[in-house]
């Protein structure tokens, strides 16, 4: 079943979102994801337009707010597969607080972050992951703030699944994203991609040269080793790690929740509710 | 109508809330009508805490500020309450403690004191001084001792020694036989309920089938969250404490999108943070039910006091233009019924519905008739969807078929302007049609409104009110024949036909704010000329305050 919608996406020619879209659609198709049970939740930005170019149910909400919406959809209907998707500005900047608390909740969601280290839709301002010193349309003398490291942050918070992949490696993308979707719990996938219009530093070539897969580089790599995963996550300048960096098998929000663990369905339409017994306590 | 006002005063942390609840409930269960309010500082220990109970033979819905009896556990709170003493007020305090002298008070007080602490000590529980006072007051009202005894057993359930000493303290209190004259107030068997605004709203949400609540704690809106949390397992409700108000409102929109009746609760400051979410609900046509329990602002304002300052803010909440429904309950019974209706209207029209409470409503318990639960308000108006399903189909009444994800058809919604299928569009003709489609719902919404409460419209002076000021306005107006009133609980939209009934009358809006917000709203919606008087000192309006203020303004 194809997940592609026949449409002309409103992205710049050469945008990393194009291969990301193709990779994601083929991953969903190869996994045999039930389209009727899939919901994509996005924020705002070039990345967040993704569901308009796919064929699936979606909630394209506010800038930075995909995770609270995704959380509630999953809480209300645990049978749905929920993917939250947005860019680095949306997920790590505007939505940074929700990212942190989403990790704490560990609800079952796959979080895909198009990380091109720049703001695209607003024309080239620095994002939370833009490296120090990089000159942008708003930081004319160069960014002076430390970049946010989403992987070390997520690992430090004991996130359930922490991975990174690259739009230029279809097989790798498929491997990491399908593992994230299959994983029960909050699964973070930081996706490296170029912004051909506004980021002249982190180009396709830049990523291609620096990215390496942690498991391929070290066949004994143990993603459950937190200290080692954290150490890898800190790497950047010479080599950039990707793959499944950290796995932390722990109960999900649903499995721990006093109401949801009993399989209660919240989306039910009721025709009768008896409130009289409850009212009696106020006599 | 006969009434009597009792004030319990002391510091936060002295157990006044527990004892006040026990006193109110004992009087209520003995057949009296009760109205309570609380005046307290934003702190957990110390400061001042005043729990007032108005006892009457018919249900009343506002407090008389001047109390007949004050039991004070601290000298400083007695001093702060001196302005509410009148010549009949009796002060009771512990005779072993230092208290306010005639010189300090500046007038001769009627004082009656007892060694409460010593009596409690003799009963075996030094901390039960409140229970001694409780017994003494209940004896005055001839309340059967089994009523408070049962409450003590419930409150201290499982602690047999504590129950025993508290029951002993209660009995010793009963035996004090205060020589105080109280008016003859009838106490009859009745079918009333003693409910506060928090409970009314929470019960209404349960009755409406609310299954998901997200909130960030903020006084005085927190109570509704706590109420549902305390019943979450029983009714299968997910109550999530969000990381901030922005998360809370977006969660509730997500929960509603996925098909659960969902509620977000807050106070003014938190509501301010939710603006973009309200606009999102409007654009995605997702039902959104919100509670804003008002407190005095701007900014942090007075966290534990009351006001009606958020009206125009709430009516205009969210950027852009879209329909919404705003209610402001008069009583805890109203809070129940309007909460149910808010869920129904939000679902039927796929719009934001906002329940505007006040600190005084949520914190005050009142004697009410059984709230009316309407099963037709459980209707969700959710469709299955099929091959040709379009979430934002243009329809005659502006309401498109709403399916939920996980069903037969894909459901696509977008905060950008979108076409009928939910896909983002820059087609300006479609944009225009979508604006018209959304605004069309206002017509249906006007037909859902019930008329405001009306009293003595032949009078030359008509007071206008909204929300929980009704008790005070009704009490003031029914006491005289030259004043009538019109009182609203559904404050937006407003049916402009009221203009014919009120034209040519002197209209004065009584409000818990400085600027006369409802007067402005009524003026803009109907063209009527409306004056106003406003109370903005953090206290609720009362019948006496209305009378005094109308006199000062030369209106009566």
Key words describing this protein structure:
heterodimer, A: 283 residues, alpha/beta, Rossmann fold, 8-stranded mixed beta sheet, B: alpha/beta, Pyruvate-ferredoxin Oxidoreductase, domain 3, 4 domains, 6-stranded mixed beta sheet, 21 helices, 21 strands
Summed up, what is this model?
Chain A has 283 residues and is α/β, with parallel strands linked by helices.
Percent in helix of chain B: 25-40%
Q: Provide the CATH superfamily of chain A.
A: Thiamin diphosphate (ThDP)-binding fold, Pyr/PP domains
| Major sheet attributes of chain A | 8 strands, mixed
Structural class of the secondary structure composition of chain A? alpha/beta
User: How many DSSP-defined strands of chain B?
Assistant: 21
Summing up helix and strand content along with how strands pair, one would put the structural category of chain B as alpha/beta
Name the CATH class of chain A. Answer: Alpha Beta
Shape of chain A: globular
- CA-to-CA gap between the ends of chain A? 59 Å
What does the overall shape of chain B look like?
globular
Number of domains of chain B: 4
Tell me the CATH superfamily of the largest domain in chain B.
Thiamin diphosphate (ThDP)-binding fold, Pyr/PP domains
CATH-defined architecture of the largest domain in chain B: 3-Layer(aba) Sandwich
- Give the total of domains of chain A: 1
Question: What is Rg of chain B?
Answer: 26 Å
Measured by DSSP, the beta-strand proportion of chain A falls in 15-25%
Give your account of this protein's structure:
The complex is a heterodimer of chains A (about 280) and B (about 550). Chain A is an alpha/beta fold and about 280 residues long. Chain A has one domain: Thiamin diphosphate (ThDP)-binding fold, Pyr/PP domains (Rossmann fold, 3-Layer(aba) Sandwich), CATH 3.40.50.970. Chain A is built from eleven helices and eight strands. Chain A has helices at about 15-30, 65-75, 90-95, 95-105, 150-155, 170-180, 205-210, 215, 225-235, 255, 275-280, and strands spanning about 40, 55-60, 80-85, 110-115, 160-165, 185-190, 210-215, 240-245. Chain A has an eight-stranded mixed β-sheet with strand order 2-1-3-4-6-5-8-7, sandwiched between helices. Chain B is of the alpha/beta class and about 550 residues long. Chain B has four domains: about 5-175, Pyruvate-ferredoxin oxidoreductase, PFOR, domain III (Pyruvate-ferredoxin Oxidoreductase, domain 3), CATH 3.40.920; about 195-380, Thiamin diphosphate (ThDP)-binding fold, Pyr/PP domains (Rossmann fold), CATH 3.40.50; about 380-450, no CATH class; about 455-550, Rossmann fold (3-Layer(aba) Sandwich). Helices cover about 35% and strands about 20% of the residues of chain B. Chain B is built from 21 helices and 21 strands. In chain B, β4, α2 and β5 form a beta-alpha-beta unit. Chains A and B meet through β2, α2 and α4 of A and β7, α8, β8, α11 and α13 of B. β2 of chain A pairs parallel with β15 (about 410-415) of chain B.
